[in-house]
Write a structure and sequence with these properties.
With 192 residues, the protein is an alpha+beta fold. The protein is 22% helix and 36% strand. The protein is globular. Its EC number is 3.6.1.-.
């Protein structure tokens, strides 16, 4: 499918994403690799697929996140990690994802260097949450997600350092931390 055959708002997003160079990666202090898939559903009004992590998880329980996780030794690239994790968490088949590209890696507060991978998903894909990892799957309109004004900064002072977090809400979902930072970075990249 050429990007001229996508709805105008999605074709515009694709053009902007592909024409802009990613922001330069900040110096990474983390070495453990991980990746997430930023799944964009190709609806007439495109949406961003997000999950709310299961409350029973040891880390980040109940938080809004993208499908993703740490890189396995068999993963040949961040794209392979993101696709594997999306299949495991929400049953998105790897062959159904059209990869647009990657954003520069971000450091997580749990010691991972996380590479966001942007992919397009057909509207007819059925999502099935892996109940061990995902409590809920929901969609957010892409135009809302990419509105920079929806992300509020919060500076946290810890161990003599200031860390900036971003916070946002969508309906009853609280989007913050690394997920909000990734969406905000994507919004910055496509804003002209």
């Amino acid at each position: 499918m050429s990007h001229q055959s996508y709805p105008p708002s999605l074709a515009d997003f694709i053009s902007r994403f592909q024409l802009q160079l990613p922001q330069a990666a900040q110096l990474s202090y983390n070495v453990r690799p991980a990746a997430v898939l930023i799944p964009i559903i190709c609806r007439p009004e495109p949406t961003l697929l997000l999950t709310r992590r299961a409350d029973s998880l040891r880390k980040h329980a109940g938080q809004v996140a993208f499908p993703g996780g740490k890189t396995d030794h068999d993963d040949l690239s961040p794209i392979a990690t993101a696709l594997r994790e999306a299949q495991e968490e929400v049953a998105i088949p790897a062959h159904a994802v059209k990869i647009l590209g990657q954003l520069a890696p971000l450091d997580s507060n749990t010691g991972f260097k996380v590479t966001p991978v942007v992919g397009l998903i057909p509207a007819d894909i059925e999502f099935h949450a892996n109940e061990d990892e995902v409590a809920e799957v929901f969609e957010m309109p892409l135009y809302e997600a990419l509105s920079l004004s929806r992300y509020y900064p919060l500076d946290i002072h810890r161990s003599g350092h200031t860390h900036r977090l971003y916070l946002s809400w969508y309906q009853s979902q609280f989007v913050w931390g690394l997920t909000a930072a990734i969406i905000r970075r994507l919004a910055q990249q496509v804003s002209i």
